[in-house]
Amino acid sequence: MPKVGRRRTGENPEKERGAGGGGAQGEKMPKAGRRRTRGNPDLETEREAKKRSLAEEASPSAMFAAFERGDAPQSEAKSERVYDVVESVMEESSGSPIPLLHEPYIPDELASHPGIHHAFELAEAKYNAEKDHRYALFTMARGPPHSCLFNERRLLPIRETAKDAVLLASGSVVRLSSSLGRVPLNKCCGLWFQQDEEKKTAIVLTSAHLVRKQDPSVMNQWTGKYHCDARVIVHLLDGTTARGSLLYLQEHYEIALYEVTMHKPVELPTFNDTVHSGQDVFRLGRDDESLDLKITHGRVEYKIPFRHERCHYLYFSSDESRHRLLHDDGGPIINLEGKVVGLVNNHINESFVPSCILHKCLDFWRSFQCMPRLHLGMTFTSIKLLDPVCIERMKRKHNIESGLIVQQVSKGSYAEKLGIRKGDVIEGFNGKYVSTTVELESMLVDICWDHFDQRNKLYAEKDVSVLIFNAAKLCRRTRNLTVVVSDFGEDIIEGTYPVTIEE
Q1: Among 381, 355, 155, CA closest to 255
Q2: CB 235 within 8 A of CB 241
Q3: What are phi and psi of 161, to 5 degrees?
Q4: Rounded to whole angstroms, how far apart are CA atoms 247 and 258?
């Protein structure tokens, strides 16, 4: 099992872990599927078949959450239900039925009777007690808070479809809490990702913020520190709890996998890789105490990330129902078919990791027990996110209408040595044009598949071809950039220098 929760310090990981740290793991890795080639479904199918084969070899009795590539055929989230009249499993106890509740009153002819009012008070008290008892039944619970799908008129066009979608996805959403000794640490939501009926285990996908040492709302660092030995409890929907055991923590994507002993079947969600700006989505979570479902409506938004956010984030643009959902890091973002299109990364900044990235990461973990990516030493902004006036100006003056604008270059990185600077435009990698940061992230993981196809090691270096537009010299050039294949979180180190008296 791979080590978890280690932070990359900028030093050579081979030296940091020891000469055999990544090598032994890399040598034992089975060969992955062939390189994904766009436009060639045969190679795509072959890769998927190999992934399934590798997963089945590891655990033939395991069941995984379903992933859909692209737009799946539209289907109703709610299916027609047919039932037969069968004998009840729990038979009614013998005896007379509970009498219908009737409200007492004083007949007119007895209004002046001296004892009638005392009798009425007793009857009314008995009536109110029985009425309270009936209202306490689970079928009569109507107390606040109401979700945004109860009676908000603005959601009327999608309310019925959304209700079905939420209920379809809700069974896979669980609550998790962590602690250090007796001291509570963090709370998050999570999703069932895998179940093995033979081993009586299930795996929860959640946010690494569950065991993060520092509040994830603090925006002053790239990679956090984690209490990987924290005690984690999964709060099951039947009111019981189970201990979670950490299987893997990925610092860059800030996701974690926990294994739980389960003697009951769990509901596995369906993920969908397609998500677009402006799409109606819902963010799901669970209440701390009651485990009641929390539902927030919003729309998908593409926007420029904050300084210490990852480039691959998408954003959940919420509405006035936002205040009803707290501590939902690790919860799902679902579409109107009840399919998961992302995992909440930070509910405060409303960022989430799209399912297309989760899909590739979880495929890697199932095959190789790790989730590698390429460390480029740069952050980017997509030209597509700029004002159309700026895009038109770039196109008119410099023949540039898509690509990624370099925002930061990490001090001492290969990108810095290659001469890439803030403001330059990266137009393509390995001969393929790239226009969004999510597309770039997907491409980086695909390059990792090629790296593993060739039986190369984790934490090794690899050269990729980069098409660069130098914004200062107004010229294009193609260069080979050396990158690191790593499953650590990538830290972007700011350039600094000491000021001397002479200056």
Answers
A1: 355
A2: yes
A3: -60, -40
A4: 5
Integer CA distances (angstroms), 256 to 135, 170, 246, 369, in order: 42, 20, 8, 12
Rama region for 421: left / alpha / beta (φ>0; ψ in -120 to 50; rest): beta
Phi/psi for 369 (5° steps) reads: 60, 30
Residues near 428 by Cβ (< 8 Å), separated by ≥ 6?
Answer: 403, 434, 466, 467
Contacts 24+ apart (CB under 8 A), 99-105: 101/127, 101/130, 101/131, 101/134, 102/127, 103/127
Quote the distance between the C-alpha of residue 283 and its chain's center.
10
Coil vs helix vs strand at 500: coil
Using alpha carbons, list the distances in angstroms from residue 170 to 15, 167, 174, 220: 45, 5, 9, 34
Rg (CA), the chain: 28
3-class state of residue 403 by DSSP: coil
How many CB atoms are closer than 10 A to CB 502?
4
Question: What integer best gives the mean pLDDT of the chain?
Answer: 82
Q: Is 257 helix (H, G, I), strand (E, B) or coil?
A: strand
Nearest CA to 10 among 359, 411, 305? Answer: 411
Mean pLDDT of 349-378: 92
Do the beta carbons of residue 271 and residue 265 sit within 8 Å?
no
Nearest alpha-carbon partner for 36 in 56, 52, 50, 57: 50
E-assigned strand segments in 66-165: 66-68
For residue 288, which amino acid is it?
Answer: D
Greatest CA separation for the chain: 109
pLDDT at 13: 42
**Is omega for the bond preceding 145 within 30 degrees of 0, making it cis?**
yes
List pLDDT tens digits, range 232-287. 999 999 999 999 999 999 999 999 999 999 989 999 999 999 999 999 999 999 98
Looking at per-residue pLDDT, the higher value among 145 and 356 belongs to: 356
The tokens describing 315, both together, are: 């954003």
Distance CA 21, CA 439 (A): 31
**What would the two tokens of residue 150 be?**
């109860």
Cα gap 457→370, rounded to integer Å: 12
pLDDT class of 1 with cuts at 50, 70, 90: very low
* φ and ψ of 287, to 5 deg: -65, 145
Instruction: Give the start-to-end residue ranges of the domains of the chain.
Output: 372-486
DSSP bridge partners of 285: 294
Distance (Å, whole) CA 145 – CA 159: 17
N residues, the chain: 503
Segment 287-323, tens digit of pLDDT: 888 898 999 999 999 887 777 788 888 888 887 645 5
- The token pair at 295 is 């539902």
SS3 370: coil
Strand partners, 486: 373
Q: Of 131-145, 146-160, 293-307, 416-430, which gets the smallest average pLDDT? A: 131-145
Q: Just give the CATH number of 372-486.
A: 2.30.42.10
